[in-house]
Design goal:
Number of domains: 2
Shape: globular
CATH architecture of the largest domain: 3-Layer(aba) Sandwich
Structural class: alpha/beta
Order of helices and strands: EHEHHHHEEHHHEH
Number of strands: 5
Oligomer: single chain
Length: about 200
């Protein structure tokens, strides 16, 4: 197992795009949000926890999670959102840690929107934050999800401020549409490899 690196960023920051560049460079990549969706459908402990907390309506007749229904339950309800996170996050963190143990490259990359908020950053060796100006993030999400400015702003307001996330970051990628991305990514790549050699 090599160095465990996390990559995170607020909605519309472009963290998934940056992650794909690392992946294209041959870095093993774990998409925590994608894996969480899979686990919510297939992990028996999560299934049991969600049914106990939210009722049988949380799953459709075919056994697939009713994402829309669940989203409506936790939207604007922090208590229910905390319950949801307490059921899902620990198991996703454990799943990601087991995946990292199997990797043989110099380092592996774990992408998650809530790496800091969930506390899973504590199991990582270093953290990359993808940063972008708020106005640009709003425009990106409006275009990507075909939603209103107010809806995107509401999502941003619910997230940890970028300035707070910077306190946890070892590296920052400035995805502002102006600064070239590849030189930043290659610099971080080299810095992480040097950490591996110096271990």
């Amino acid at each position: 197992m090599g160095i465990k690196v996390g990559i995170t960023g607020g909605i519309g920051s472009g963290k998934s795009y940056i992650s794909r560049i690392f992946k294209a460079m041959g870095v093993p990549f774990y998409d925590a949000d994608k894996e969480a969706k899979q686990l919510m459908n297939h992990d028996p402990d999560i299934h049991k926890g969600l049914v106990n907390a939210f009722g049988t309506e949380v799953y459709q007749a075919d056994g697939v999670l009713d994402r829309k229904w669940l989203a409506e339950q936790v939207f604007n309800n922090n208590d229910k959102l905390e319950i949801l996170n307490s059921i899902v996050h620990p198991l996703v963190i454990r799943h990601g840690e087991m995946w990292a143990l199997r990797q043989t490259a110099a380092y592996s990359l774990k992408e998650a929107a809530l790496l800091i908020e969930s506390g899973s950053y504590k199991s990582l060796d270093c953290l990359i934050l993808v940063s972008a100006p708020e106005e640009l993030r709003i425009e990106r999400v409006m275009h990507r999800d075909a939603v209103s400015r107010a809806e995107v702003q509401g999502r941003i307001d619910k997230q940890m401020p970028e300035s707070e996330k910077e306190k946890y970051a070892d590296f920052i990628v400035h995805n502002d549409g102006v600064s070239p991305l590849l030189p930043q990514i290659l610099h971080i790549h080299q810095q992480i490899l040097q950490r591996e050699w110096s271990k």
